[in-house]
Amino acid sequence: MGHPSVNGRIENTRLAAPSVPEQLESTLKVRYAAFLLAVCLSLTAIVIVEGWNSRQYHLRDSEVAMSNLAQTLASQAQASIKQADTLLFALVDRLENDGMEPEKFPRLQRLLHAQRGELAQIHGLFVYDEEGRWLANSNNAVLPNANNADREYFIYHRDHPDRGPHIGPSIKSRSTGEWIMTVSRRVNHADGRFAGVALATIYLNHFLNLYTGIDMGRNGVINLIADDATIVVRRPFNDAEMGTSVANGPLFTQLLPKGDSGTAVVKSYMDGVERVVGFRRVEDYPLVVFTALDKDEVLAVWRRESMLNAGIVVLLLGVLSVLGNRLIRLMRQQNNIQNELLEAQEKLIEVNHSLKLLALEDALTGLSNRRQFDVFILAEMGRARRTHTSLALLMIDVDHFKSFNDHYGHLAGDECLRKISTIITDNIQRPGDLAARFGGEEFTVVLPGTDYVGAFLVAEKIRRAVQQTDIKHIGSPEGIVTVSLGVCAYNQTAQSQPEDLIGAADKALYVAKASGRNMSVIAN
To answer: What is the pTM of this model?
Structure first.
């Protein structure tokens, strides 16, 4: 405890109240600081909210633009394919009604050539028989032994009896080597058997030229994708990507299951870039138009605006910070003396706390001392009586310790006691247990909530641990340091005072020592 005069001065300093002017000045400073803080927080909040609203506006505006673009391109694709499909429908009707005799093919080929010239997007019109052989084409191409039975569209119509148009994957033309889209219809004999295929091919450049003319930024994309998730045409164009499946991409896993058109912000399956997208199915045909702008490019203008606004706010906050810093300096100067006094008070409290701990701790072993043990055992016996719970006590004595001291010296004896106290502590792991030095070479352990069986097991753990430490002791029959232990469980009827419980454990310890030492004995 500190000297009374020092304690009195600390107490007086802590309780002394500042004068009214000082209180008023301090209150004004605190209010001014709170006002500055509120202004700073308000400005920051306004900038954040406005910035977030602006960001959402830019994204939503881009989504609307992509939705409109997807709708426009879907209509364009539908119109281009419809024109080619209309020619095919008329061609199939002519073949099935007029027949497919060889003498009719020269006139048919002239007709196909004329029809192809009417539509700029048409690459060619072709007719194949049931074996895939070329019968007529609009390009006047002559390919000896040419056969297209291996093409996807031919196999499809050969195996499917439906009469509707079929759009196949993008391929390279065998006659010109150009990338084309195929639109085909089945031709039947009069009895319904497969008679061949009528095919219209559309230049992919017809779509690419249109897509390239649209400003999509540096990293935007436009895709025309088949219902089987394969890419028909993509801008920017890359030969290697034609026919690539995007079945696992967000368009087919997340967006199309919810509807035939829409917008979203998703990460690209092809290149991992996050984009603002719009999509729409092509009416009457198994195609989907997919348009997308790079999200980073969409938000580039928003970032510049946000940085400008943030700069203005930072400038204002800087001015306010200068004013606030000056105010804080004044407040710090005012509080320095008071802080120093509080620190001195805290140090005195820490010293008092340390002195209290020293008064309850054994200086040699670091265990609780006899004073702490007496307080603890009395409290735990009272708790056990109130709650009707068990309580056990161990009394521990180092065997032949006097001869150990006589032979090895008191310093070695002190070290021996420290080692044994460590062993005892290591073997009682519960926070509610207490290990104490009872006196000399005698220790005690209080085990709340433990009966005599559990206490005996703890006693044996300690005894074996000491034995296994193998501290040499020439004066012991074992040749090493050992301990004897008395174990006693609290009996509320027979033991009303701590001395009764301690005495019972001490008697058990006496029996252990009289019976040869290095053993644990339970009190009767």
So the answer is: 0.53
Q: Are residues 166 and 268 in the same domain?
A: yes
Name the residue among 121, 235, 227, 114 with its Cα closest to residue 178.
121
How many Cα neighbours within 13 Å face the side chain of 25? Answer: 10
Rounded Cα distance, 139 and 175, in Å: 9
CA atoms within 13 A on the CB side of 402: 0
- The strand pairing partners of 436, in sequence order, are 368, 444
Same domain, 160 and 215: yes
| Residue among 63, 130, 380, 441 flagged as catalytic | 441
Residues 384 and 341 in one domain: no
Order of strands across the sheet with 483-489? 434-439, 442-448, 391-398, 483-489, 520-522
- With respect to residue 154, please indicate whether it lies within any of the assigned structural domains: yes
Q: Which residues contact 249 (CB under 8 A, 6 or more apart)?
A: 229, 268, 269, 270
Cβ contacts of 135-138, under 8 Å, gap ≥ 24? 135/100, 135/105, 135/196, 136/105, 136/108, 136/109, 136/112, 137/109, 137/112, 137/175, 138/109, 138/112, 138/113
**Per this entry, what is the length of the chain?**
524
Residue 191 covered by a domain: yes
**Domain limits at 484?**
370-522
299 shares its domain with 400? no
Write the CB contacts of 172 (distance below 8 Å, at least 6 apart in sequence). 178, 179, 180
Q: Is 340 a catalytic residue?
A: no
Tell whether 197 is covered by a domain: yes
Q: Tens digit of pLDDT for each residue in 98-122?
A: 888 888 788 888 888 888 888 888 9
Radius of gyration of the chain (CA): 48
Residue 296 and residue 276 in contact, taking contact as beta carbons nearer than 8 Å: no
Handedness of CA 337, 339, 340, 346 (dihedral sign): positive
The 10s digit of each residue's pLDDT in 457-489 is: 999 999 999 999 999 999 999 999 999 999 999
Domain check: are 267 and 236 in the same one? yes
CATH number for the domain that contains residue 459:
3.30.70.270
- In this structure, the answer to whether residues 430 and 466 fall within a common structural domain is yes
Domain count, the chain: 2
Residues in Cβ contact with 493 at an 8 Å cutoff, skipping those fewer than 6 apart = none
Q: Collect all residues with Cβ–Cβ distance below 8 Å to 426 and sequence separation of at least 6.
A: 465
Measured CA to CA, the distance from residue 145 to residue 135 in angstroms comes to: 11
pLDDT tens column, 290-312: 999 998 988 888 888 888 888 88
Whose CA is closest to 43, among 329, 304, 321? 321
For strand 261-267 and strand 179-188, is the pairing parallel, antiparallel, or unpaired? Answer: unpaired
CATH number assigned to the domain comprising residue 329:
3.30.450.20
Residues 346, 374: one domain?
Answer: no
Q: How far apart are CA 362 and CA 342, in angstroms?
A: 31
